[in-house]
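Moderator note: this is an archived Q&A kept for reference. The question asked for a predicted structure of one protein chain; the sequence and the answer are reproduced below.
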Amino acid sequence: MELRELGKTGLKLSALGFGASSLGGVFHSLNEKDGIKAVHTAIDNGINFIDVSPYYGHLKAEIVLGKALREIPRDKYILSTKVGRYGKDGVNTWDYSAKRANDSVFESMERLGVDYIDIINVHDIEFADLNQVANETLPALVKLREKGVVGHVGITDLQLENLKWVVEHVPEGTVESILNFCHYCLCDDKLVDFLNFFEQKGIGVINASPLSMGLLTMRGTPDWHPAPEPLKKVCAEAANYCNSIGYPIEKLAMQFSINTNNRISSTLFSTTNPNNVLKNIDFISSNPDMEIVNKVKDIIGQQFRVSWKNS
C-alpha cells in the first residue's frame, strides 16, 4: 500500500483509507462482527488511516470502531474523528461551540478506547456559522493540540468554497488538513481546482466517496442521495456501460480516485464487509483504463461536475 504525506503534518497516510461511517449503519444494516472484522482486514492489508465521527450512526460508529481498535496496537493506525455534528434518537444536531468541541473530543476518545487522536476535524462546516468555526471551534481544537490531546487539526465539508474561506480567515497553521468528498471521482473532479491553494498553505488533502455515495455503482443511489435526477440517470447509464464490457464501474471509480492524482493524500471508502475491503485493495493494485474513463465521462457529459448541497 502506497503511503503519502499529509501536508506538513509529518503523517504518512495509506493512499486508500478506511471510512468508518458504515460501522454506524449509515448505508446498510450493520452486522457488528463483520464490521469489526472489516477494520482488522483493512489494517492487516496495509491500510493505516481510519476516519470516523460521533455523527455516524449517532455514536454507534465510534462505539463499534472502538471495539475493533482495542484489539489493534495503537501504532498500527492513524485515527481521525470530528466535532460539531451529532445526533440522538434519530434526530441530527449541530453544536460548534468551543465547550462542546472540547467535551466531544474526550467523549470520542472514551468511546474509541484511545488516549490520543491523530487528526481532529470540524465536521461539515456548511451547517455552521463559518465565523464561529474560524473564531471559536478551531481555536478550541488548537488548544487541545497544544496540550497534546490531539495531533493535528482539520476541517471537512462537501463545499470546497467553505473550506477555502475558513483557511483564509484563520492564522496560518491552524488548519493542517481538509477532508472533502464527492469531488474527485469519475463524475466530478472539482477538487483539482483547489489543490494549488491548499498546497500553498501547507494543508494536506483527504478525499472521500470515490463512488460518490452510490452514484458510481451498479446498485445505484440510496433514497436520500441529494444528487439531481439527470446526474443519477447518466451515472446509471455509465454503470450499465461498464457492466456490459465486463469492467465494473466500482473498480474503475476506485482506480480513478486513488491512482490518478497523488497530490491527494488518502481517499476514504466505507464498508462493513471484509471481502469488500480486500476487493477494493485489489482494484487499486492497477491503474484505470483511461479509454474507459473517457467513455464514462462522455456518457456523463454535461452533468460532469454538477454538484448539490449536503443533506
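Archived answer notes: Residues 122 and 155 are 5 Å apart (CA to CA).
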